[in-house]
Amino acid sequence: MTILRAWIRGAATVALLGMGNVALAMGDPDPDFVNGAWRFDDFAGEDGGGTVAERTIALKVLQNPGSDRFFVVYSVDDDDLNRFRLGVGRFNMDGSPQAGFGTSGAPGFLLLGWPGVQDRFEPTDATLSADGKLLIAGLVENPENNIHDDVVVCRLNVAGNFDASFGDGGCRRLPALIKSLGGTPQIAADPDGGAYVSARPFAQPDFVIQHVDSNGDVDMGFGIGGVHTVYPPAHKSYSVRDITLQPDGKLLVIGSWVLAPDNNNDQNSDWFVLRVLPDGNSDAPFGGNDTGYRSIKFDLGDAPDHMTDIPLAALTAPGGDIIICGWTQLSGTSWGMGVLRLSSDGLTIDPEYGTSNDGFFAFTQVSLSSRCADMALMDDGGLFIAGLHAYNLLADVDPAMLVLDANGDLDTRFWKVGATALHVDRSELPGDTGTDWFRSLHYDAERERILLVGESEGDSSDLVDGMMHSVALHDRLFKDGLEDQ
User: Fold this and answer.
1) Cα(341)–Cα(195) distance, rounded to whole angstroms?
2) Residue pLDDT, tens place only, 113-132
3) Shortest CA distance to 296 belongs to which of 320, 318, 328?
4) How far apart are CA 345 and CA 442, in angstroms?
5) How many CB atoms are located within 10 Å of the residue 155 CB?
6) Over the stretch 330-386, which tens digit does the pLDDT of each residue have?
């Protein structure tokens, strides 16, 4: 019955996704953003040396409330220079770069390193501080041994320069994460201008979380000696995937874990949710087992207890419920997308919202490999999800979107079926090829649109460009303010 429910959810998508765009359909390209087209960026000319970065990935799109500009944070990897750097772009609302941002090279863009502008800096996550500045988590070179990385948290002013009042010239090396193994450091802003960062220390199996205040100083009162160690009970191995701060100041941590004992070579992983109190201790009542952890099991595939299920993003809905999206393995080569709503105390999964934990969504069932990357709640209570859909064992990966209504059902006002995958395919290889996908989105309520960013394989297999797009949330049949009459 579990699998039948999953196929029914996906079947509606299969039946209608081939219909193509319908005039005035919600979710069509926003004509006010790059004239309804796509934008691709590679930071060409920003170094001043004529080099073009081989891999430019748009990690995050961020907009301060009420602003008529938005930021995109990039990871820029240049083989000629043999290093990563932090890329920042600031754009007008029509998608054009803001000419006054940046002092040289490509207008509207900056390339930054730390501690020097040419030094290695690999950004991994970004958010906005309470006062509208950019907070960045990432990896920089360890000064004593350049084969190791240190995790840093940095703050940039809206002009794009490091905020000298934060840490050591704009960044703080986190003492518990010197010589880190990384684990893709994640960041969440606190309401006072500080931030939480999670990552995995060098030569240790456990992820840790550190908190810095608005000055970039490590909060030694957080956890034990300034460190909260993530340690799911009875685990064999685990990984942290996302952290997010709830309105009440508690920190949500989501990840995947393999429970001990495990006889499947670490191939059976389940979702977990941890809630951490502002003082750095686990919120013991959360989840109902006095540990602060809640395990969520899917196991939808043809080999129960042998499936890799991984959560990827979480947010807190009005009222305190927690919405989580991720992937759930269906077979050795296919994944579906799980979307569920967990009660604020971590005890109850809503059986009617999204897929719950006994079904899956697919952007399209031409191939069953759908993964979410980011999501946002809209003013009407609906949920907009962006990610990827893969075909032919990842030979062709397309950016994809899915929308749920306030009840957690597919919102068929969008693309007639509630989901779509978009063919970009800029690769020089023949046929439908190329790795193109959305990594981050921003809900722009004022302009009734979603901004989306990610990465796109270019006309050569060793070139990847930052990708940007926008879709409209209004069907544009009425724009005179009389919709409700």
Assistant:
1) 26
2) 999 988 999 999 999 999 99
3) 328
4) 27
5) 26
6) 887 788 999 999 999 999 999 999 999 999 999 986 667 899 999 999 999 999 999
